[in-house]
Write a structure and sequence with these properties.
60 residues, mainly alpha, 0% strand, 48% helix, 3 helices
């Protein structure tokens, strides 16, 4: 658990967390895809941010 509740950055930037809607939107916006496409990417390749980004680049 984070001690500083005002710090909303992902404590694990190498992971994509599906429980955080803002993070899904951020990942989608950063990669130029709908945030609705991020969940299937995580379902297919897991929570590794690198693997999710690679999946999304191939499924635009």
């Amino acid at each position: 658990m984070k001690d500083d509740l005002t710090d909303t950055r992902n404590p694990e930037p190498h992971r994509v967390h599906l429980t955080d809607d803002d993070e899904l939107s951020d990942v989608g916006d950063r990669l130029g895809v709908s945030h609705d496409l991020v969940k299937p990417a995580v379902d297919d390749v897991g929570t590794s941010a690198r693997r999710v980004e690679e999946w999304l680049q191939h499924h635009r």
